[in-house]
TrEMBL record:
The protein's name in its UniProt record: Cyclase family protein
One Pfam family hit: Cyclase
Domain of life according to the entry: Archaea
Chain segments annotated as transmembrane: none
PANTHER family referenced in this protein's UniProt entry, alphabetically: BLR6059 PROTEIN, KYNURENINE FORMAMIDASE-LIKE PROTEIN
One GO BP: L-tryptophan catabolic process to kynurenine
MF terms in GO: arylformamidase activity
């Protein structure tokens, strides 16, 4: 688990809780895992020396202190690997007839605020979360959603990170549940599961059984009617000490005209929370 808890304020009164998973090569929890080529300090010296020679300077790798340059990595990956935010453009070209926002167009104010965590750890894997179930969870919390809050769906699936089961053993949001949250003014919804919808195989099975295209990515495609972003592959929601009023920042990386971007959500928890 990618858990990080660090004292934040000088007096130690605030703890930072990392709500993300990282980028790993060859991990069984990604159908399209990142490819990462690691370059050590010897490689770094050779590469930097070669670049300086191209600029007209006579330098060799051995000229660097201790013969070491700068370590680096070459990455090949999709912006939907690791914890990431999907932009409305991911769901379709338009939202309610208007051009859909790409990740570089997402307002930063959408990505910071107080989070509400809804507990769906009791839901059966491969099942669909309904609007009534979302309303029931909010009633249990005695909480009325406000515009600007972020809502996170806790399934417990992050405990399976690193295994193939992570891809198949989680419940997903339904279209009506998603629309209900957005209609309350919620712009960012997150999940600690691999995907926001049900597992791929379950959607395929339901489509084949019913011959109904509404079984395919219903929560994602709800974003063609209502504007919102979703965060997938979160983690450590169970480490939060309360279910409402949790300050969170979740700013995505800016990628020009892209359907999504990597994000590292962090919760700020006061000592007396």
């Amino acid at each position: 688990m990618w858990a990080t808890m660090t004292q934040f304020s000088p007096d130690g009164s605030t703890t930072l809780i990392d709500l993300s998973v990282g980028l790993e090569p060859d991990v069984d929890s990604e159908p399209f895992p990142p490819e990462i080529e690691y370059r050590d300090h010897d490689d770094g010296a050779a590469r930097l020396a070669a670049h300086l020679r191209e600029l007209g300077h006579d330098i060799e790798a051995a000229d660097f202190p201790d013969g070491h340059g700068l370590a680096s990595e070459d990455l090949t990956l999709i912006p939907h690997a690791g914890t990431h935010m999907d932009a409305p453009w991911h769901y379709g070209p338009t939202v309610d007839g208007e051009p859909a926002k790409t990740i570089d167009e997402i307002p930063l104010e959408w990505c910071t605020g107080e989070a509400v965590i809804l507990d769906f750890t009791w839901k059966e894997p491969r099942s669909e979360i309904s609007a009534d179930e979302v309303r029931s969870q909010l009633e249990d919390l005695d909480h009325e959603l406000s515009p600007g809050e972020l809502v996170f769906i806790e399934t417990g699936a992050d405990e399976l990170w690193g295994t193939p089961e992570y891809l198949t053993a989680f419940p997903g949001m339904g279209a009506e549940a998603t629309k209900y949250l957005v209609e309350q003014g919620i712009k960012v919804i997150g999940t600690d599961a691999y995907g926001f919808d049900k597992p791929f195989d379950e959607m395929g099975r339901r489509f084949a059984e019913a011959d109904d295209d509404s079984e395919l990515w219903p929560a994602h495609f709800a974003g063609r009617d209502i504007e919102y972003c979703q965060i997938e592959k979160m983690a450590n929601l169970d480490a939060l000490p309360r279910r409402t009023g949790v300050p969170v920042t979740a700013f995505p990386v800016t990628i020009e005209d892209a359907s999504g971007g990597w994000v590292r959500p962090v919760a700020f928890v006061e000592e007396d929370a």
